[in-house]
Amino acid sequence: MSQIICSFPTMAHCVTKVQLTISCENLMDKDVGSMSDPLCVLLQNTGADDGWMELERTERVKNCQSPEFAKKLEVDYYFERVQKLKFGIYDIDNKSTNLSDDDYLGGVECTLGQIVSSKTFTRPLQLKKGKLAGKGNITVIAEEMQDKRAAVLQIEARNLDNKDFMGKSDPFLELYRQGDGDKWQLAYRSEVIKNNLNPNWKTFSVSLQSLCNGDMENPIKVACNDKDESTGSDLIGEFTVPLQKLLEAQNQVIEFDCIHPEKQKKKKSYKNSGVVRVRSCKIETDYSFLDYVMGGCQINFTVGVDFTGSNGDPRSPDSLHYISPSGVNEYLTAIWSVGQVVQDYDTDKLFPAFGFGAQVPPTWQVSHEFSLNFNSNNPYCQGVQGIIDAYRNAIVNVKLYGPTNFSPIITHVSQFAAASTQQATAGQYYVLLIITDGEITDLDQTRNAIVEASKLPMSIIIVGVGSADFKAMEFLDGDDGVLKSLTGEPVVRDIVQFVPFRQFQNAPKEALAQSVLAEVPKQLVSYFKMRKLAPVNPPKPAQ
To answer: Which of 91, 124, 179, 319 has its CA 20 to 30 A from that of 266?
Structure first.
């Protein structure tokens, strides 16, 4: 499969690899005198409506109407993409690899998001879209392909050699796993502790895959270095040990001589260049985004739409709210693009949607948080199409006004997120999409609201439409520094992602969602790790 390279901003990154286990029940029998010999082929949509590319096939199972395929199918998983998949079941009666020569027993089209958000994905087979095959079901079970275990270590050192002429050494740790031959591959690097020969490093976690390829008997090299801004770093000393030995620190502190090989060769009286003390080492499960989603976490999607006067009269073709003859504008495109991805992770498909900055009937008072469907008691819309229908209705029934205040809707969604924390489970996460055309007018209040939201199971996506200056949005994004409240309190987690729509006007339709949703998986994981919450239904530990 060839790699596709795109020049549009913020490309999607593969979150993980997913292994799909396929089985079928009660397939049609196309053979005379025997049963069908089924095979499953997996295809992925290339972007065009009818463009499909084959990824993999299972083996053929002879004479079986309810096959369980032994071969697992592997797919790269991207949270921020709608990955359309097609499973086709064929009765293979010849040695040709051309499936057009074989009987089609039925298939299913779905998204990878639908599969990973279901414990067991079962659907009836269709002969073509909308027409059931009459017989046969397919079941797909997804598993993330990685060792979930991580080593959690607390390490300190005592009486390290001083490598500096002025002051003391600035030590840091590096842990390596053994690679091919004599090569060592860096698995972890600690923070630098300045001017200290008796450092205590922060507790850290490193996956067993990175540390020892999952084998606790494999050697690990621990190197202690002195950070030098001009020359990089100087080795203080090192030692090699299997992880199994480090695990003795579960019940007691264990010590290792920190040896500098050159000094050891030169001096017979050389003992060590200090002592490294492992205060604690234990194995924990390092849960991933998919562990939480597949373990039952629901992602709740909320939309906030800017109805301020700076958007222009919706009846004018110059307005950002003008709906073109083709039925779209930038607001609609953003809602559809992001919503299409997120909706797969919400079981009831009911999404609250709000507007702000408009005069709202019947009182025509300015509102910074009104329901798009004008039902304040039930702001939920049925699916992404429901949000779009409510938006189309609202745009012809409100009067655009101002100012552009974000904090009310952020605070509103934060209240939902805060309520979910009372259960103390990893069951709910909230994604707020705000679409706006201009400068924010309550920046200080919004900063405070974001700092509070960073303590909650919540992410905020801001899409800027039109050609305005979005410096304030970039400030909220925090990419150039840690966002702080008015009182100087920093965000606990980076939860805001901002993108200007104009960067995606000529991009493929899925590029916007890929960009704005790229940070959500790690934001979700960072929150639940911060709260020390395991998935509601955690995966079975690796054997």
So the answer is: 179
State residue 511's pLDDT score: 81
CA distance 384 to 40: 32
User: Which residue numbers in the chain have pLDDT < 70?
Assistant: 1-14, 32-33, 48-50, 180, 229-232, 479-481, 541-543
Q: What is the DSSP string of 15-83?
A: -EEEEEEEEEES-----SSS---EEEEEEEE-SSTT-EEEEEE----SS-SS-B--SPEEEEE-TTS--
Give per-residue pLDDT as tens, 264-304.
999 889 999 999 999 999 998 888 899 999 999 999 999 99
- The CA-based diameter of the chain, rounded to the nearest angstrom, is 92
Residue 382 parent element (H or E): strand 380-382
Instruction: Please list the alpha-helical segments (H only) found in 252-325.
Output: 261-266, 289-294
Single-letter amino acid, residue 181: G
Which residues have a Cβ under 8 Å from the Cβ of 182 and sit 6 or more positions away? none
List CB contacts of 97: < 8 A, sequence separation 6 or more.
none
Closest CA relative to residue 210, chosen from 248, 175, 246, 235:
175
Same domain, 518 and 418: yes
pLDDT of residue 420: 95
| pLDDT confidence of residue 496 | 93
Q: What is the CATH number of the domain that holds 432?
A: 3.40.50.410
- The CA distance from 381 to 387, in Å, is 5
The per-residue pLDDT for 7 is 35
Distances (CA, A) of 334 to 340, 434, 497, 504, 506: 10, 10, 14, 10, 14
Structure confidence at residue 230 (pLDDT): 61
DSSP state of 421: G
Tell me the whole-structure pTM to 2 decimals: 0.73
Distance, in Å, from the CA atom of 124 to the CA atom of 214, rounded to the nearest integer, reads 39
CA-nearest of 148, 113, 107, 146 to 128 is 107
Beta bridge partners of 163: none
- Residue 157 in any domain: the answer is yes
Residues 134, 213, single domain; the answer is no
